[in-house]
Amino acid sequence: MNKIFARFMKDESGATAIEYGLIASLIGVAIIAGVRILGTSLSATFSAVSSNLTTQ
């Protein structure tokens, strides 16, 4: 029983998978935040262009 528990404590493959999952989720959050910020800026730009085109 002690051997099994010692082998389980030394196994770090699960920790690596969790770390990769955390990195992937942080990248996803960064992409979503960037798209939201960029989307707001693009929306304002297209609205300005559209209003300038309709007035001329």
TrEMBL record:
Q: Pfam families under this entry? A: Flp_Fap
Q: Give the source's domain of life in one word.
A: Bacteria
Q: Which UniProt keywords apply?
A: Membrane, Transmembrane, Transmembrane helix
Chain ranges passing through the membrane? 20-39
- Tell me the protein's name: Flp family type IVb pilin
Question: What organism is recorded for this protein?
Answer: Methylocystis parvus
